[in-house]
Design a protein that fits this description.
The structure is a single chain. The chain is of the alpha+beta class and 178 residues long. Helices cover 26% and strands 31% of the residues. A seven-stranded antiparallel beta sheet has the order 1-2-3-7-6-5-4, with helices on both faces. Strand 2 and strand 3 form a beta hairpin. It starts with 5 loop residues before the first helix and ends in a 5-residue tail after the last helix.
Length: 178
């Protein structure tokens, strides 16, 4: 992230790795079905780093803190982009993985249905998040899944439940999401 200290960047990187693990779990699996344009290329068709600055500001983050990928490297099957707000991080992920992978992962818990615009979505947390400092909103699109994650900064006081902020952020960003 531009202008961020190494510790903050390390937290963001760890969170990005956790979301990938939360979706795909461990081990290997066979994916069945017909390939779409996104899966044929191996990458999702939506790049979250293209979200407009005005939407990011409305979601409470600074567009200048944009951080793409994990350690600046994109991962196969994922597009990842994140930003920093006053007391939280906001990350948006698009993946060629199906939304059923999120629901079926035993590392995820506390599923709750929500609406993101006119979409059916759900929030969830990771089982290991005992402090409840992170929350994800997930929904599927025609050929990819979108995840919006809010994670509190350990050095700041949490001002709201991360799930409330994640749902609000997803709704603010919704007009710009596939």
């Amino acid at each position: 992230m531009n202008g961020q200290v190494g510790g903050t960047r390390g937290i963001r990187i760890a969170l990005a790795v956790c979301i990938v693990c939360a979706v795909v779990g461990c081990g290997s699996q066979t994916v069945e079905g017909n390939p779409t344009a996104a899966t044929q290329s191996g990458q999702p068709s939506f790049d979250p780093c293209t979200l407009p600055d005005q939407a990011l500001v409305a979601a409470g983050v600074d567009p200048a803190t944009q951080d793409a990928g994990v350690f600046g490297v994109q991962m196969q099957g994922w597009e990842v982009c994140g930003w920093t707000g006053d007391w939280f991080f906001l990350d948006v992920f698009s993946t060629t993985r199906g939304i059923e992978d999120v629901r079926g992962n035993p590392r995820n818990t506390d599923f709750a249905p929500v609406a993101v615009g006119s979409r059916d979505a759900f929030t969830y947390r990771e089982v290991t998040d005992e402090e409840r400092g992170t929350c994800d909103v997930a929904f599927g699109t025609e050929n990819q899944s979108i995840l919006v994650r809010v994670a509190t900064k350990g050095s700041r006081e949490t001002l709201e439940d991360p799930c409330i902020v994640a749902v609000r952020s997803a709704n603010i960003l919704d007009p710009n999401l596939p």
